[in-house]
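Handoff note, outgoing to incoming analyst
You'll be picking up this chain. Sequence as last confirmed:
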Amino acid sequence: MKRLLALTCLLLAAAAAPAPAGIFSSRDPLAQYDEWGRLHQSPSTGPTDFERRRYHTRLTYNMQSGRKLMNDPAYVGALQVALRRTGYYCGSIDGVFSPEVIEAITRLQKNHSMRVTGNLSLAVRRALHLP
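Most recent structure output, in case you need it:
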């Protein structure tokens, strides 16, 4: 009888526990959910879905120099997110290549035994897993 009661309590506790986060769940409050609380794509298309691409192939995007990418706000924003994820940057994600970003890059270069320049080099991009 005690075993049956313990098994029942264990099953009830397992049923009351929240489900683990899978590939169809997100912590993003702005993500789009369906009626079951799962992530889904938007049923309608946006204006950026059919916009012309800036780069025809990925190779032309990856071959850009760091100086050219420092002027791209979207790339600098991705750089700031990657630096924040690794713990080197604590500022705001605004897409501006500021002195705080340069300082974060110098700390990353020093910790990864790179030549410390503060510039966005190919080695820094590879260390942060950026294209």
